[in-house]
Amino acid sequence: MRHAFDQLLQFLHQGIAAIFRFVQMIWTWSVDQIATLLAVPWQQWPFWKQVLLVVVLVGVIWALYKSAKELFDAGQRILGAFATLLGVLVHTLPSVVLAGLIALGGVWVMNHLDNKPLRLPVAYNPFANSSNPPPPASSPGAAPAASNSTPAPASNNTASPAPAASGTPAAPTEQPSGR
């Protein structure tokens, strides 16, 4: 997500830089043309050329005044939009901080919780002291368990005895040695 945001900012930066380079080129060209116009030797010109020069200068001054007024109005709107943008960014900071804190807390909880199933206290465990415990989980192809609640004897001598139905572990029994 950050990479995409950085790419978007880079794209906007390059686009704005290209626009400003184009505007700078036009302004430089226009200023050069106006400087050339003002540097002409108009004192030796005939009267009708001097009048034409005045008309051209009035047109240039009118165009510069119009562009200056548009730039001033645009500057006001840009500053207003920038102030609005800053206000929105500041206004959204609490939500962004809250989202970060939720993510931080979630990661902390996930990293610090034991991967074993949650052990409920006896008061909240419905099967803790029940004489009717839940049926044992069986594999999908296995036959259903018998209704006898006592565990079947272990066929392998190395297996530990199953706990009693009351939830307390059975007393350890001696295993015969295979010698």
Please summarize what this structure is:
This protein has helices at 2-38, 47-112.
What does the model show?
- It is a single chain.
- The chain is mainly alpha-helical and 179 residues long.
- Among the domains are: 1-39; 42-116.
- It is 58% helix and 0% strand.
- It has helices spanning 2-38, 47-112.
| Bulk shape | rod-shaped
Measure the end-to-end span. Answer: 66 Å
Mean pLDDT: 79
Strand fraction equals: under 5%
Low-confidence stretches: none
Q: Give a short account of the largest sheet.
A: none
- Give the helix proportion (percent range): 55-70%
Give a count of the beta strands, DSSP E runs of length 2 or more.
Answer: 0
Class computed from helices, strands and strand pairing: mainly alpha
Number of helices: 2
> Which radius of gyration do the C-alpha atoms yield?
43 Å
Order of secondary-structure elements: HH
Question: Which terms summarize this structure?
Answer:
179 residues; mainly alpha; 2 helices; 58% helix
SSE layout and pairing:
Blueprint: H1 2-38, H2 47-112
